[in-house]
Amino acid sequence: MSKNEVQELIAKRAAQELKGRCVVNLGIGIPTLVAKFIEDENVSFHTENGLLGVSDVEGVIDPNLVNAGKLPVGEAVGASFFNSADSFGMIRGGHVDIAILGVLQADQTGLIANWAVPGKNIMGVGGAMDLLVGAKKVIVTTTHTSKDGKSKILKECTYPITSTRSVDMIITELAVFEVVEKQLRCIELMPGVTIEEVREKTEADFIEDLLVV
Amino acid sequence: MSKNEVQELIAKRAAQELKGRCVVNLGIGIPTLVAKFIEDENVSFHTENGLLGVSDVEGVIDPNLVNAGKLPVGEAVGASFFNSADSFGMIRGGHVDIAILGVLQADQTGLIANWAVPGKNIMGVGGAMDLLVGAKKVIVTTTHTSKDGKSKILKECTYPITSTRSVDMIITELAVFEVVEKQLRCIELMPGVTIEEVREKTEADFIEDLLVV
Amino acid sequence: MKVYENAKSALESVKSNQTIMVGGFGLVGAPLTLIDELTRKEIDGLTVISNNLGEKGKGLGILVNQKKIKKGIGSYFTSNRDVGDAYQKGEIELQLLPQGTLAESMRAGGAGLGGYYTKTGVGTDLAKGKEEKVIDGITYIFEPALRANVALIRAWKADTLGNLVFYKTARNFNPMMATAADIVIAEVDEIVEAGELSPEEIVTPHLFVDGMIKAQKILTKDGVIDHEQK
Amino acid sequence: MKVYENAKSALESVKSNQTIMVGGFGLVGAPLTLIDELTRKEIDGLTVISNNLGEKGKGLGILVNQKKIKKGIGSYFTSNRDVGDAYQKGEIELQLLPQGTLAESMRAGGAGLGGYYTKTGVGTDLAKGKEEKVIDGITYIFEPALRANVALIRAWKADTLGNLVFYKTARNFNPMMATAADIVIAEVDEIVEAGELSPEEIVTPHLFVDGMIKAQKILTKDGVIDHEQK
Fold first, then answer.
1. Separation between Cα atoms, residue D186 and residue D164, nearest integer Å
2. pTM of the entire structure?
3. Which of B202, C101, C162, D168 is 20 to 30 A from A80 via CA?
4. Which residue of C has its CA nearest to B51?
5. Which UniProt key words apply to this protein (chains C, D) (predicted)?
């Protein structure tokens, strides 16, 4: 699969988690792709920089209408704009139902690291910490391994963690994991993937809990 | 003088303190009357319940457009409405230049009491405490004595104080006092009033500092 | 967005002994239809967070007289003598907060904050028992966030998604209350199609609102009347 | 309301070693004309509070490269590699805050609060050295209010009194910054007569603004251009 296909596979699977009236915040990267797989009008997208009702760009690009990744977006019918303090009031205050985030690392208790790499120029927390303490459900979308082939799902994060709160779900191009009581459970394999392959490419311990389909 | 004349005399004198571009918050009672003596368009009136740009009612009364005393008002050209949290952000944050307030009591160090009378049904602090900590200048407008003829300017307040911050000026129908370094200075007598009369009707100690006019 | 047929069904989630926020500065911006229904509902032991407890015999003032309110949290109880009388007789608990603190504590509750330090009230009777902290040489007191089980608010226009705008000084505490309760019911004068409110002017985005009802009681210069009579 | 003839006179109040807030989420909603003038002004030792320090060689990024910034306070420095490089070389101090904390601290600074307790960041490296408090069983950390000597913000329309409205996601941090500095200079796209903005839609009332300037630099999909070229 191309990089693009991998990303779309993950985003499409994440989209299945969004149903009915809910408010969803999409992080930078793969999460941004999730929106295009949603047809349910009851799903509203929130972006931390001050918009509820994110939609695809329609027609002319407006450089002053962007998402958290500073990419141009459109505004849905019934959208609203607000300042950053109010936007994070929504997030911290528990008014966002689902956050979909990328990570640098995740661990077998569901903790994630996605804002800093010691000694490197990655020093940007943005809204990640706020989303982790505030969103009712947090879904991680990430490639299973880093560019050099190492597992991104570790026994323990080596980069600084983003929150002491565990995420609820991790979706990769190989599998879907749920975090239940600080334990990783592999609940689903992506098409054509075997549990052995997942085991091989995952440093973290996890419980096999595959749903019979 | 009738009660009305007394109130207007005090309000008119207070109005002289408002000049140039400034934002003024008017309390309930005599302060409300101050607005009608202001012609300078640079003076903007703020009311704690969410309006900058209070003006007189023009034409039809709108029951949903009121001041802090819940009395109908109008909106000036360039007025804006905001919620109560933002309104008090303005007040506490030092964005209101002058507050004009009524009192139950004031004392010779400039402390005031205007929100509670122990054992009575006066239990309403409203925005008074916020205005005292936030407004750059606080002017008190009050009748010099209470209905039973007792001085309202005391050596020490007997009712609970509103703030540990001293007000800057006290205007009554008899005199104008400034508070400088926690001392009351009588700087002006109202027309026809003698300093002896002021002394007689004032429990508080004060320094005579009349300007030669 | 759920639009209730009548006030009774809108208030099904309100139970005895709950904490409820009720919008309004006096009767201005108060959810008069929902309050009216509360006076008919069998309920008691309420903690009511509202700037005032209505006026004498009006709005929340009726609930005071019905002894449905165990505790009031607000900034100005002077305007309803019945509240003071009930307090002197020990029939109601009152927690008096400076108006800015009342508003800010709701905002904090809605924004996921635990509390904050304010200058307001320092050194007064209202600061008694409150933690003090000196920050950059200035003394502040700690005020905890306020939240409620249910918020009953009033807005002017809603769209079908539940986005709200407010009318002039009828805005007051309503937007903060919309953020700070588990269930938020908005009484509105008018419901328009989604898209009719400008995205720049929406004050309360729909994610804060759980249900709506068309206002039946409105405030006029002659007092509160039923909508039909207007 | 004072309207400055040019950016140079608008920035006369900005001095070396001051703390300045600069609006914008990246370049969106940034006061590009004022930033451009800062790159020409002889000044150093600035503490800059802004979500990002511009992009590589753009906006505040130029000031970084000119070494005019002693310290940056923001939430996301990753998007300008030059900031990271300067930091590794010890040429710039950085204070990283979660974006919600950054926004909230400004709001607190503008609203006369000393600080507040937030859940965000608890237990992470960004909480190191910060006071913890348990409120109703939840652990929070203390965050102090942020203020500045000068705030440089960008708005869409202003009226002649100085009331401001913002454009779509170019609003971001600008309204809070307008409340939290001793001097607030607003760069605006358009100035209309007082009364032309609806009282219900004004986001920043004029009492927060000290001076204005018409924007000369605007952000287009092809980058930042001069107004005349549009």
1. 9
2. 0.97
3. C101
4. C169
5. Transferase
